[in-house]
Amino acid sequence: MKIKKVEIRDYKAFYGLNKFNVEGKNLFIYGENGSGKSSFYYALKDFFQSSTETLSYDETENIFLTKAQKSKGFIKVTFNPDRSGAANDKTYTVKKSSKDTYAAGDTSIRDAIKLKSFLTYKHLLSIHHIKRDNEIDLFELLVKGVLKHFKSVAITGTKELGELWDDVEVATGKETSQAFNITAKKKEVDEAIDKFNKAFKKLFDKTSIENIMKFTQPILDKFGHNIEIELNYTQARPNAAYNAIERNYVRAKVKYLGKEIPKPHIFLNEARLSAIAISIYLGMVKRHVQGIPCKVLFLDDIFIGLDISNRLPLLKILDEEFPNYQVFITTYDKPWYEFVKSTYLDGNNSWKSFEFYARRTRKGFEIPIIRENKSNSHIQNYIDKAEYYFNQADNKAAGVYLRSAFEFILKRFCYEKVPVTFNLDSSKMKTDTFWNALKKFKQDKPTKCGLTPATTAQIDHYTSLVLNPLSHHDINKHEITTEIQGALTTIKTLKAELNV
């Protein structure tokens, strides 16, 4: 099952009806802070969780709705293929009054949520605070972070790991009274701790197939840090007064290139810790039964804590380890988004990209504005935008996007093919430098370049009429529609001739 379309109405940041044409592909989403990307994450998460839980829609409804607008919102997801593998649309809807994500004979949505495959950056925040007293303690990162929602009947029973720990904290925090004496409290605390310890320690049993590193280490290896991790859990216990928990920590033994590291708290910098945390999370997703029709993996803004040495391997890991999953990634990092879109995703038919922006309405509050990039070619997206603005009679905007397309075509073709004078300051790498280098390359190696004399002449013509002047403020420039249209046709021809 692949998500074909998502429709969200009046949920969190989304006001009114918002449609996302996913087309069964993986999504890479850029969003400004406050633009709705996390609302999209939680909408899909709530959609799947609705198959096993009763959601409080009043708490997630957009707060700016009028009285007349309230209670009409929904989250609607259309899949194709359906759960049987047939190329048919199957739509499920969650709204305040009803839901059909769990019905007799159709458990596909309920089965999907068992993977617990939704990870947000908030689950990784404790990475900044796990070095204590010259030791690494991964307990909070695991129990309140990456494994908070981990659930397995064989390990945690009917509850998530985080819920078992919540039970421990609630029990120890209870005040005693005449009706609830210390003996009753001790019994409740001991029972809660025992349930948690029995579940959690199974993940650290070296002889068990449930050992956490069995699934984690192969993924960690692909990050290329050359480290091996062994985790050990010291079981939690109540203090003497039964009002706090002690000894609940997870220690890490670390080997680097086969050599044991005596002081892991010094060796494990934030980049390595992030790789470990994400590897644990992804490993525990893979430990679940995989033979289900719908597998979605959503990573919300987790690149925040990752440097480039972890970001690129993660994309490769997702391709290699989760080929049967539909992957959703969000980021607020625009340069990183543009880099991925123009390299990794360019020409990759299994991915689509969306951009979320926040814009103020006439009533004063902000709503998401969604921009769908319909082509998986970065260059084609620029051309499409130029054509869109040309059809909207915005010649200035069309000219700017044509200029961007032209620059990208030149840089893409010249990369590793055409010698171009380099400058450390990229702003001084002028378009004319690439264009002149390309024309010389055509002269020197005519069979290696499809550029024709006619297109060369047209580019030289439209550079002075459209591509240069419309990218600058020039009140004396007369924008002529036929010139914009001619430049648009010429850029398309250039793209085809250079085969980029």
TrEMBL record:
Gene Ontology BP annotations: DNA synthesis involved in DNA repair; double-strand break repair
Transmembrane segments: none
Domain spans labelled RecF/RecN/SMC N-terminal: 3-341
InterPro entries: P-loop_NTPase (IPR027417), RecF/RecN/SMC_N (IPR003395)
Protein name: RecF/RecN/SMC N-terminal domain-containing protein
Organism: Rudanella paleaurantiibacter
